Amino acid sequence: MSKLAINSVTKSFGANTVLRSIDFECQIGEIVGLLGRNGSGKSTLLKILFGTLNADTVDVQLNSIPFDPKKNLYNRDIAYLSQDNFLPKDLKVRNIIPIYYQDGEKQNKIFYDPRIAKIVNRRIGTLSYGELRYLEVLLVLRLPQRFILLDEPFSMIEPLYQDAIKDLLLILKQNKGIILTDHYYYDVLQITDRNILIKNGQTFPISNKRELVDNGYLPRQKSSGLLDTV
Predict the structure, then answer these.
(1) What is the pTM of this model?
(2) Which residues contact 124 (CB under 8 A, 6 or more apart)?
(3) DSSP class of 173
(4) Strand 57-62 to 3-13 pairing
(5) Model confidence over 146-162: pLDDT tens digits?
(6) CATH classification of 3-214, choosing from 3.40.190.10, 3.30.428.10, 3.40.50.720, 3.40.50.300?
(7) Quick check: helix, strand or coil at residue 219?
């Protein structure tokens, strides 16, 4: 089974050390959640793994073989969904799909998704945020890369599409290793196999919400499990 092992990742911006010692792994068939306060380095870590941001030090292995994230853009082992929308607003959904998938069978898996079929003739700029995010997640998850990085797939979208994205992730994780981060921790905990909290630049394994409280990510007086914006 394919495994991505991340060890000894460090990153500083000037005098500000964001990542001090990041160590965790992700295997095909599992979803790993990365949690942490704003500024803890979650997005920075995903960009390092994808290869668009240099680390100060990084030791990544793919199936026990050294893996250089900077070469990922050429080797295409890892796909990445940023927290910013990236699709051209003036194009219709039906014109976007062939840009990502030239094979007819693969295109059909997108076109005939029940939620995409309803919006296929609409322009990207007219979609709700939930519709757009679902389309973006689907496009990235259907790519051939074995490992997928998702930055805030649930944030600020309608509950209907939060649930749709969770269902999609649970289905497609069978052939993918997925690492995701989001402030909607309740949604993250519902679908992940393992969770990692980034705190003070280091990683801490998390099994449940109580451990998020004990580690200071959630204030003790909150108990609703709803959005936490810390």
Answers:
(1) 0.91
(2) 87, 88, 89, 90, 91, 92, 93, 96, 132
(3) G
(4) antiparallel
(5) 999 999 999 989 999 99
(6) 3.40.50.300
(7) coil
